[in-house]
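Posting this for the archive.
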Amino acid sequence: MSYNDDIINSIKNIINLNSNDTQFNNPTHIIGTVIPGTVDLTTNTCMVQPLDTEKTIIQNVQLSPASNIPPKYIPANNAYVTVTLFSSSSGFISQEGGAKGVNLAGDTYGGIIIANDLVTALNQIQNLVNNLIGLYNGHIHPTPSGPSSPTASIETGSLPITQVDDITNLVVSHGNGQTNIENQQIETLRLEINNLQGQLNILTEKYNSISLAIQDMASSSAKTTLETQQETIYNQITIITKNIKDKITQLNNIQQ
């Protein structure tokens, strides 16, 4: 029994169907995987390889029941999908097991706001306004003659600080198309890249500093020592640069 046969039988068992069940074997529905690189957002189609390898590749699979009419799920490469067939070579995705994006009602208004980022921006404005109110109310006005006086009419209001829960509707949630593990990997890689970039900047400054120092130096043991240090730094720069490139490649592979 092949790996794909195991998957098919597992799915049958999960939904309590046996291999002779006409519903499961209904030729109008096929389970398969999205062929990498075939998702086309211009035509809103992809290609699907049936799990039953005896069946041919479905060439023209729409991302939604009616072409380009929401909701539209954008499947990830190799995602498991159920295709409802129009014909042997065309159909639409009726069940999706790994979306990297979703279009609920068109894209006129762009993407959904990330609540945490919005709250951060709002809090910055709110804190700034509240600080300005405090400075205004506490300001002492010097007068040409007589004692100084505080602001005649103070501002009694202030902006309440927005919390994430104030603007979040948990009935509909969204993410970046990555799993929690992938998000942790992405965050770790970004931190590692930033740290390596910081090390690279420091080493580059040292390398350039030595270059300036030995530029007009006559041959001497001191110059030889500096040249040796510079060669060591160059080798370190080469290693760190390669590490950064490798980690950027890993990051891009996860985010695809």
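The mean pLDDT is 78. The chain has three domains: 3-103, 115-166, 180-255.
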